[in-house]
Write a structure and sequence with these properties.
176 residues, single chain, mainly alpha, 5 helices, elongated
Length: 176
């Protein structure tokens, strides 16, 4: 050790006991540790490395489940109950998505009102119009269905709304 570095690299204390490596009896803890490493740790580590390599090949993102679009009730055959079930499940997923869209737009409007304070009526007019549009679309599709609404009742409501629009259009053309 150079003389100039003695303050930086201090020597260890002199009274530290040094291990005695000349013992004729092996340490039993070393033997137990080696047996554990060979019998337990090595196979577990090898298995985990194998599994990690397999997962690295096939990355699977479990937090976004993608469902394929299934035909709605208008495209199902008369006695195709599996198609009816899939259409109902698709309708429920679509309803949940539409509910989340309404919630997100409401949260955006609330954040804008908190951010703008007293002048939120004029500064958040775009968010208010967007919320009105989203709520109107949601009510047109799912309003008046009640708690037990399903895809069939929603389809019938849509059909009745379309017939009413056609009647109104025909009445408007007849008056002109």
């Amino acid at each position: 050790m150079p003389e100039a570095d003695k303050d930086v690299y201090r020597e260890p204390p002199r009274r530290t006991p040094a291990p005695n490596p000349q013992s004729s009896v092996p340490n039993p803890l070393d033997l137990i540790q080696k047996v554990f490493d060979v019998a337990v740790d090595a196979p577990v580590t090898a298995w985990r490395n194998f599994i990690e390599r397999q997962h690295a090949k096939n990355k699977f993102y479990y937090y976004h489940r993608h469902f394929r679009r299934v035909p709605d009730l208008t495209e199902c055959l008369e006695d195709d109950y599996v198609c009816f079930f899939e259409a109902e499940a698709q309708w429920e997923r679509d309803k949940k998505v539409d509910e989340e869209i309404v919630k997100i737009v409401q949260e955006r409007l609330a954040a804008c009102s908190r951010r703008e304070g007293k002048s939120h009526f004029q500064n958040c007019a775009g968010e208010m119009e967007q919320l009105k549009t989203v709520i109107k679309a949601y009510q047109n599709k799912y309003g008046d269905l009640g708690y037990h609404g399903n895809a069939r009742s929603c389809l019938m409501k849509q059909k009745q709304r379309m017939l009413a629009e056609r009647k109104a259009q025909a009445a408007a053309e007849a008056t002109h």
